[in-house]
Amino acid sequence: MGRSTGLAGPAGAVTDPDRIDGAVSRVRDSDPVDEVVRRVRDTLEEVFAAVAETGADTEALLAEVSGSGREPVAADLAALRLGLRTLLARHPLVSGVGFVAAPGLLADVPGCLEWWQRGSDGAVRPLLLDLDPEHSAYSDYTHWDWYTLPRETGRRAVAGPYVDYLCSDEYSLTLSAPVGLGGRFVGVAAADVYLRHFEAAVLPVLQRLPVPARLVNARGRVAASTDPAHLAGSLTKGPDFATVLAEPPAEHRADGLRLLPCGGTPLVLVTADD
What is the pTM of this model? Predict the structure, then answer.
């Protein structure tokens, strides 16, 4: 379905040349850096919308269980499944989504992921992991950045890219946010995005910049890049990117670099300082 621009009549005839000239001028004069920030923000916020909905559903569920006078158990999280499958259908950029419980939250298991993902065949399936620390196949998720960053900062995070051995064996980004109950951290809501899909969304605007550029997370990990000296997945040394992200979204300069937080998202656009 098309969207009217207001620049043409029913037959496509020009109705207001001055408006067209103004629109063309705005496109011509638009700052390519602003375009990058908007594209990154819009791309990430689509995924964070799924994360936020998962977090809200989880908090409501845990509050209901707590209000009944008992501790939550793993089976309670099954109530999230319909919503998670719906989110995967609604957000094509999201390859996996779910809630990851903090150790000790659930009375019957040491840890739990209520996680659903879309396979290469398009089918939606649950992720099944061995979360018993007594077993050799135990998967400890508490050291991964997508878990530790929200736990430590209380804020949203972008982790990766990394090879996602837990879920897909693909290079992925994981976007996450803390989930709380009564002021206590109880886990994270998170969503995966294949790196190739994220790059397809943001590289076209990065490539319009006149200088090499990269998108960096709070740990200094490069999420996407047009700079051959800083490839996706590599670590960037230098500024404290977590501090840059914690401050109001304004431009920073340090060590010969221009640092611009991307519209309130947990990524920083990094270019050489002109």
Answer: 0.83
